[in-house]
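Quick log. Single chain, no ligands specified.
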Amino acid sequence: MTIRIFDPTSIKAEDYRHRYPELQRTEEFAELHAKALIFVWWYANQTSPLVIYTHDDYERVAEALKRSGFNPSKTERDRILSIQFDSKMAVAIQKMASFDPGARFYAYTMVKKIYDQYQKIIDLGPDAFVSKETTGKGESAVTVELVDYKRYVDVSAKIADELPGLLTKLEEGFAIVNV
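-> predicted structure:
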């Protein structure tokens, strides 16, 4: 399995931030136009094929400009091609490079596991909160099953409160795309 995070392929530039809401919330990307942000992805994201396979900075930056469709002014283009980024792009590149795909994948699987565990609790209903108590010894021992309905109601209410946040996390998917 190959994963990418914030993958811009097959997404229109104007839809890129909408596809990955986290990009809208990240202040380092706020001042960049969509195609400039996509250039930053191609140039700096740990899951970008250019970062993985193109080790020459000049070659990588030229290919990132081409693939992103980012068309800066001639002066800015020359500066970018000589690996001289303005401060806002340099900060954006640093931020994009800092995203850890492995940690994001594990975070996604953890949230998915929590979601699945909640489903199991709800499926079991009150039976999830059965305990057994034994009184007496030997042949006179009596085992009684107790259902903790209060705990079931409390946990169910807690799950209902937590679900919207978990669902949002799963839908956003930590920006993970399985390629």
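DSSP finds nine helices and four strands in the chain.
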